[in-house]
Design a protein that fits this description.
By secondary structure, the chain is mainly alpha-helical. It has 2 domains: 152 residues, MFS general substrate transporter like domains (Growth Hormone, Chain: A); 232 residues, MFS general substrate transporter like domains (Growth Hormone, Chain: A, Up-down Bundle), CATH 1.20.1250.20. The chain is 82% helix and 0% strand. The protein is built from 24 helices and no strands. Helix 2 packs parallel to helix 6 and helix 6 runs antiparallel to helix 7. The longest helix is centred in the C-terminal third of the chain and has 33 residues. The N and C termini lie far apart (57 Å).
């Protein structure tokens, strides 16, 4: 909607800088509620948090519909993203805890896939309906969600942890479609054991810092995954997703900007499915190397196109009308087949359990801050230094990601977590010995 709001015919005319705030503020807004929800989820439960988020979503849609200024638009976006910040950490936890073993992996994968499907559908709606129709289109869905989800039970794991055994028994019976308590007694016993083990082995933040200080292998694992996450965040995916329509409009390509953006999202959706199928077959390193190599080429080439658009012959630019779509297709295919699919896989495989919780929280916050910064500065840098500069910046970090993966990311496919930790310990010891000799 940002390109439409920047037109003089819009009921609220926003500037390029204001548009960049609307595109970027969401990521930084999700940080506080994500941190709060990590504590709140074990206090009030999973179900109440998810249900309560319907209210800010509905309020945001209503405010967008009746907004009369940029600040009202921005406030509505912030309200919706506060709800997203609560929902994103909670729903995967809820799905894991209600699912049967045979469908657990599919449910978690579908969570990500449905998010992409929602973005794809909204891209279509936003491209072809007027502003007010789009805001009215999104209003009913929070109400529909509450009407459907209201009947879902609370997580039996949470209920057992709160010593609400009868409620947990009822929840499991409903989830499994059983009428007899005997049919779910074995699962309830397993849940009780899991809750007891988790309480016994729970690691505090202080314990995580102590483990990090005394374990060189853990420090190396954290350093490798942290560097990988930073390089991935700086490859520009968030900015390209947020400004896909704007990029096509700015490029001067004769292809329809909205259609091109829809094609990109459909490709992203398809290759997210492909990545799910490949991750345990092809291996992590080959997927990452392919991903960073493809992204490096795509960002470098589209940077050349925008450089020619500003300083080259218009005739040459016109003959390359297909290039923005082709290069961004290569980028989306490369990014979604490898790096995008493997970020949290690698973090949770490489980092030992003693510091995993601390690292996941730290990485989530840092990723949000970097994504916000990249998305906000994309428009500013493009307007100040030339629209080709951000793409070449992204290309450099994609290349650094390729080099870093080659030298520092180990293959983890089919290996136990203990084996991976042993390799990290060995490499950390070797690095320390080399430093002492030097």
């Amino acid at each position: 909607m940002i390109p439409r709001l920047q037109q003089n015919t819009s009921h609220i005319v926003i500037s390029a800088d204001e548009g960049s705030w609307m595109a970027s503020v969401g990521m930084i807004t999700t940080v506080p509620p994500s941190l709060v929800s990590a504590w709140l989820v074990d206090v009030v439960g999973r179900r109440p948090i998810v249900l309560s988020c319907a209210l800010p979503f509905l309020g945001s849609a209503l405010w967008l519909r009746f907004a009369s200024s940029f600040w009202e638009l921005l406030t509505a976006v912030i309200i919706a993203n506060l709800a997203i910040g609560f929902i994103m950490p909670v729903i995967p936890s809820y799905l894991v805890e209600i699912a049967e073993d045979r469908v657990r992996g599919m449910l978690i994968t579908l969570f990500t896939l449905m998010g992409g499907t929602g973005s794809f559908l909204m891209m279509i709606v936003g491209s072809y309906l007027p502003y007010f129709a789009v805001t009215e289109f999104i209003m009913p869905w929070p109400v529909v969600f509450v009407a459907i989800f209201w009947w879902m039970p609370e997580s039996p794991y949470f209920l057992v942890a709160k010593h609400r055994t009868e409620a947990a028994k009822t929840a499991v019976m409903r989830l499994r479609g059983k009428n007899s308590e005997k049919d779910v007694s074995a699962e309830l016993d397993a849940i009780q054991k899991a809750v007891d083990d988790r309480s016994k082995n729970e690691i505090s933040v202080a314990d995580s810092f102590r483990a990090l200080r005394r374990d060189p292998g853990a420090r190396r694992a954290v350093a490798v995954t942290l560097t990988f996450m930073v390089l991935l965040a700086l490859n520009g995916s968030a900015a390209i997703s947020a400004y896909s329509t704007q990029i096509f409009l700015t490029s001067g390509s004769t292809l329809d900007a909205s259609v091109s953006a829809i094609v990109l999202l459909s490709v992203q959706l398809f290759f997210s499915i492909v990545a799910t199928l490949l991750v345990d077959r092809a291996g992590r390193r080959p997927m990452l190397l392919f991903s960073f190599a493809g992204c490096t080429i795509a960002m470098a080439v589209i940077g050349v196109y925008f450089y020619l658009a500003e300083y080259g012959s218009q005739e040459v630019v016109n003959s390359l009308f297909w290039l923005p779509l082709a290069t961004l297709l290569l980028y989306y295919i490369s990014f979604n087949v490898g790096a995008n699919a493997l970020l949290w896989v690698l973090i949770n495989e490489l980092v030992p359990s003693s510091v995993r919780g601390l690292c996941n929280s730290t990485f989530s916050v840092l990723n949000s801050v970097l994504t916000f910064s990249i998305t906000k500065l994309f428009q500013v840098v493009g307007d100040s230094l030339g629209s080709f500069v951000p793409f070449w910046f992204f290309s450099v970090f994609c290349l650094l990601g390729l080099i870093f993966t080659w030298f520092f990311i180990p293959e983890t496919k089919g290996r136990s977590l203990e084996d991976i930790k042993e390799e990290m310990d060995t490499k950390a010891a070797g690095t320390k010995e080399s430093a002492e000799k030097a």
